[in-house]
Amino acid sequence: MGFLRFVFRRWTEDRCPQIAASLTYTTLLALVPVFAIAVALLSSMPFFEEVMVRLKIFLLLNLVPELAGKIIVEYMEPFARNAARITGISFAALFVMGIGMMWSVDKSLNTIWRVRRTRAWPVSILAYVALLVLGPLLVGISVTVTTYLLTLSSDLGQFPKGVQPYLLKAVPIGVSTIAFFLAYRVVPHRRVPTRHALVGGFVAALLFEAMKEVFASYVVRVPTYSRIYGTFATIPLFLLWVYFSWLVILLGAEVTVAAGYWHDGLWRRVASPGVRFRDAVELGRLLVKSPGKAMEFEELRRAAGIPSEQLEDALAHLEDADIVVRVGKHEFLLARAPGDISLGDIYRAAVSPHARLEPGEWSAYSSDVADVVNQFETLLSRPVTELGKPDEAAASGR
Asked: Which CATH number covers residue 378?
């Protein structure tokens, strides 16, 4: 239960319900442009008609509410014909709107991973353009394979009747798991272990299927929207569906992040200033032990026992203070000679860049207070080369 509380505490701190509402609005604005781009790119390919047929089947089988799925499919064909004839200027405008949607999603997921340094904007733009160009082709292949698997899974006469419903659910859950896994593994500008992304993707897929069942049951048994809105009931239902879908995606992202804290009960660890200082000192000690030799991110994580997210933050603070330098993508070494790095440098990098105790400012207090301040400043002036292993330091202090 404590771990679940940790997940939902992060969910609240990251304002996921508000982010989901913002992404719902962005999705409504960008859904038509993105679909138009996909149709325009796919229309020149020989298998376009087959993909459109399979896409209709996929939407009817997987899109909830059912009424929204039927209406979207009904208008899909004339929309596809019109989208295939858009001009170059219109296509460019739609492209910009599609990039805007992907930027919003990218920013939201990086907020959950608490990324301090995002990708450079030229790199991001190139990634978005590549996704908009290659995405429709990948979606077409994915929909074709998925509908084919669903067709195969529907022919389950040779299996016991009690097993058939579970097998029918396995295919969409598997496809959703892969989709969520790729999103959690690729989108954040932070190193996400494969197993953590798989856990988050699987949890999100299960929640997505459960949400479909609950939502469909609600629409059928509580027809409030149909009575109030009549033929316009599709609009609020579709809005709710998109909103809850984003809630599931964001919750899966939080589970992916939290998976990094599962080992050794690290989710109980609070990133207080004291903990941040201890982490930075430990990283300095580890890097001092191998002067001139770069250490990999995973090597530092295992040796220091720090969760990936907090390790990224600690290294970023040390980089900003020119204590550590990144070489390559996931390797780090000291930026200065070990003797030139003091505990005070690390303290100011990890806790506060302006944290200084001037002994003269404490002269108005008792001599005991002034002595403590002097001892603290003396301790912070020590170079990190004087630090031994934590157990050795504890032994020498006895």
From this structure: 1.10.10.10
